UniProtKB/TrEMBL annotation:
Signal peptide: none annotated. Belongs to the short-chain fatty acyl-CoA assimilation regulator (ScfR) family. PROSITE patterns: HTH_CROC1. It comes from the Bacteria. SUPFAM superfamilies: lambda repressor-like DNA-binding domains. It holds the Pfam family Peptidase_M78. Residues 12-66 form the HTH cro/C1-type domain. One of its GO terms (molecular function) is DNA binding. This is DNA-binding transcriptional repressor PuuR.
Length: 357
């Protein structure tokens, strides 16, 4: 079996599973037997160019997808929220992630970029957190190491990526079931976030997954790791000093308008802010309970009142594509492929038609 055969076969299998198709179903779509599809996937037979076109249409991918030079594998996949997700939905998410990461790696291989030397994105363990309060100190230490101070983080995605952690926004439409996942590709850490959720939810997911990395071997085995990462996420996005500065040390009530202002400034949900106030002893458990009942009664636990926090965006990949195009490392067709659009869509976006004429 050649590497070319293996690569194409792996891609056919990935695409089929992401589409929720059986061997037989895909065979029927392209007019061959399920045995023939199996041989393609196993790499014992190479599909013709005509068959690749049929397969690309059946699987909803560009034909270039099958011809990419390398394949990568996700490892150590950890979902933050996966209740109710079917195997097909999980496969669709992982397929989309792999498609995006492969396009990123291919683009980076075409450009004369400096070697990616990962920054020291967390310090060596200085102590173990034996309780949830101790996680506050670890979050403060992480912000200090990253020179963030106690102010709001406006460019969260850029800051995390600067530390050598890749962030992917998955386009798979799965309502309310999926927040994000963390994984590895080789030695690179990867955080995947749902694209179709609010910006404050995206930021919390990124901070939560970051917590898994930072808290590794730094908390007592008696603590629940998911609760610990939630505590870290809240403390990293809205540090203790800022909470006390804005809300005071103790409160008998908190106005919704206050929560809305803090949400707009720090990019953390109103519910998240209430939990911060509870964790830090600013409000009582009874006040927190009453306010959460009001949130549920008004449907604010699903859609919070006021303006929604804008979604996070990663512009770096798009900018690299246009850089490669302007420096003639790639042409318009390759740029369209890397962006995941047709050449006509690319021409429309880039207004390339007049230039080509």
């Amino acid at each position: 079996m050649t590497s070319e055969q293996s690569s194409i076969g792996i891609r056919i299998e990935r695409g089929r599973k992401a589409s929720g198709l059986s061997l037989r179903s895909l065979g029927e779509e392209v007019g061959i037997s399920h045995t023939a599809v199996s041989k393609y996937e196993q790499g014992s037979v190479i599909p013709s160019s005509t068959m690749l076109i049929k397969l690309s249409r059946a699987l909803g991918v560009r034909i270039e997808y099958f011809l990419r030079p390398e394949t990568y594998e996700l490892s150590n996949i950890q979902y933050r929220k996966r209740q109710g997700l079917t195997k097909a939905e999980l496969s669709a998410i992982e397929f989309d992630v792999m498609d995006q990461i492969e396009r990123q790696f291919e683009l980076e291989s075409l450009l004369p970029l400096p070697e990616n030397k990962l920054g020291k994105w967390y310090s060596q363990p200085s102590k173990i957190a034996n309780n949830y309060s101790g996680i506050e100190e670890i979050a403060d230490e992480a912000r200090s190491n990253w020179h963030l101070g106690s102010s709001a983080i406006s460019n969260f995605v850029d800051i995390v990526k600067e530390k050598g952690i890749r962030i992917i926004f998955t386009k798979v439409e799965i309502p309310a079931k999926f927040d994000g996942l963390s994984a590895m590709i080789g030695e690179t850490h990867l955080i995947v976030v749902a694209k179709n959720v609010t910006g404050d939810r995206q930021r919390f997911t990124i901070a939560h997954e970051l917590g898994h990395l930072v808290l590794d071997k730094r908390i007592s085995s008696e603590l629940d790791i998911e609760k610990a990462c939630n505590r870290f996420a809240g403390a990293f996005l809205l540090p203790r000093t800022s909470v006390i500065e804005r809300l005071g040390r103790t409160r008998k009530d908190i106005d919704i308008a206050e929560l809305s202002i803090l949400k707009a400034e720090f990019g953390i949900s109103m519910v998240g802010i209430l939990y911060r106030a509870l964790d830090l002893g600013i409000i009582s458990r009874e006040l927190h309970r009453r306010m959460m009942i009001d949130f549920r009664k008004n449907g604010w636990n699903k859609i919070e009142p006021g303006d929604q926090y804008p979604t996070e965006t990663d512009y770096a990949f798009q900018q690299l594509i246009y850089r490669a195009l302007s420096e003639e490392y790639i042409g318009p067709s390759k740029a369209a492929e890397l962006l995941g659009v047709s050449i006509d869509e690319f021409n429309e976006i880039h207004d390339f038609t007049a230039t080509c004429e």
